[in-house]
Every structure is written in C-alpha cells, then in structure tokens.
Amino acid sequence: MVPMSAVPPRDPGIIDLPPLPQATLPLWDLVPARARHYFHHDPDRGAYTTRRYEFGSSLELLPLVRAFLNTCAAHRDADYRHLFTLLGSELVNNALTHSRSGRPHGRYTLTCRRRSSGLHLTCTDQGDVSGRTTPAGETHPLVPDPRGLDFEAEHGRGLAMLDALATGWGDNGIADLRQVWFFLAYDLTDNRWTQAA
Ligand SMILES: Nc1ncnc2c1ncn2[C@@H]1O[C@H](COP(=O)(O)OP(=O)(O)OP(=O)(O)O)[C@@H](O)[C@H]1O
Ligand SMILES: [Mg+2]
User: Fold this and answer.
1) What's the rounded Cα separation, in Å, for the pair 123 and 109?
2) Residue 2: what pLDDT?
3) Which Pfam families match (predicted)?
4) Which of 53, 74, 87, 151 is spaced 20 to 30 Å from 66 by Cα?
5) At the topology level of CATH, where does 48-130+153-197 sit?
6) Predicted pLDDT at 7
7) Of 132, 121, 196, whose CA–CA distance to 162 is shortest?
8) Which amino acid residue places its CA nearest to atom 20 of ligand 1?
9) Does ligand 1 lie within 6 Å of residue 171's CB atom?
10) What is the pLDDT of residue 196?
C-alpha cells in the first residue's frame, strides 16, 4: 500500500479529460466566429474598449497570442505594435513557465483595455506552479531582477524588460491567482525603446 504521505496532492488546476486524438488544424478553426476580429490585424476594427480572450497552454497557440496582441494595437504604428506584442509575449511566457497555466489543459486570460492614452494589458494565470499561496490580506508582488538586462543574463529578462520599456506595470501580489499587467502609452517619445533606435 502507498502511504498517504507519498501521494502527491491533487492539483485542482488539472482536470481529467478523456483522451482525444491529436489533430493538425488551422489556428483559425479554434477561434469562435464571434471573436475572429480579435486576430485579423485589421486597423479598421479597432474601436473597442475591452477585449478578453482565454488561451490554452499549448505552445502551438503562441502565433494566436501574437495575433491577438498585434490586433489589439492594430490602430497604432508598427513600432508601437511591435513593442506591445513583445511585452505582452513576456507576460504570456511567464504565465506558461512559472504558473500552472503552462501545464496540460492549463489556461490563461489576456485582457486588453483601450484607454485614450495607451493600452493596458492584464495576464491572469492559474497561480504559482509550486502551489505557493498568499495568505489572505497579504500581497507579495513580483520583483524584477536588477541584472535582468545585463548582456550575459540567462534569465530575469522578462520583468526587467517590462520595467524598462512599459510606461507602468505591476501585479496583484497573489501567488495563487496571479494577475500581471502593464500599460504602454501611445506616445513613445521618452520611451527607452525609441531612444535606443
Ligand atoms: N506569472 C508568474 N507567476 C509566478 N511567478 C512569476 C510570474 N512571472 C514572473 N514570475 C517570477 O518572477 C521571476 C522573474 O521573471 P522574469 O520574466 O524576469 O524572468 P524569467 O522568466 O525567470 O526568465 P526570462 O524571462 O529571462 O526567460 C521568475 O523567475 C518567477 O520567479
Ligand atoms: Mg520570463
């Protein structure tokens, strides 16, 4: 008999699903018709206030993530779209790497709010991959690695990049339901991204 202490606790983020065959599909076939305009890069369909979409954990879906981010910023120039997509992709990489969202059947949600002066993106994941929780009433926000942008840095780049290039960013400080956000102002004049060019 296996002692109870040897049985790992059941992860509530993982749902038992019956096996289905694997298939190769055009990514469009996975997007419901009502949400297709979130992904088609058309600047004429940019008049939104909030867009929200839930993505699955498969890395094969990352082109869809980039299309979503790029389309959220479709009403801006190529430079802005590129930077917004880059920073949004870092939030997603972190959700997939450091949270339960990256596990099989995991999911995370991107919410983009369009403001008059810029775009605000939030990535909501399924909580720290270690199962760590934050006691009620406490918050422990993420902290960027001060050496994350060093040439030889092998990790710590994501939040350091966010810290350097977003107009503002932060997170809710709750390990078991992490929400990480950034705001990128449309005016990139004083942004290090523009100055480095
Ligand atoms: N969504 C998240 N959930 C839990 N922890 C996170 C999350 N995002 C970031 N972290 C924590 O913050 C640390 C720093 O993140 P950052 O993106 O800067 O570096 P990294 O992901 O470790 O490496 P890199 O981005 O260079 O591949 C991570 O190592 C992780 O401990
Ligand atoms: Mg990262």
Assistant:
1) 6
2) 43
3) HATPase_c_2 (PF13581)
4) 151
5) Heat Shock Protein 90 (3.30.565)
6) 53
7) 121
8) 156
9) no
10) 72
Cα within 13 Å of Cα(85), Cβ side? 22
Tokens representing residue 77 in the block: 């120039």
The encoded tokens of residue 185 equal 């102002």
177 CA to middle of ligand 2, Å? 17
CB atoms within 10 A of CB 81: 19
Strands (E), 40-186: 50-56, 107-114, 118-124, 168-171, 179-185
CA of 81 to the centre of ligand 2 (A): 20
pLDDT-flagged residues of the chain (< 70): 1-15, 45-46, 197
The residue whose C-alpha atom lies closest to atom 31 belonging to ligand 1 is: 98
Q: Which residues neighbour ligand 2 (ion) by CB within 5 Å?
A: 94, 158
Judged by its nearest atom, the ligand closest to the C-alpha of residue 129 is 1
Distance separating alpha carbons of residues 157 and 163, to the nearest angstrom: 10
Ligand 1 pocket, mutate which of 89, 134, 142 (most atoms under 8 A from CB): 142
How remote is the CA of residue 158 from the centroid of ligand 1, in Å? 7
8 Å CB contact between 62 and 69: no
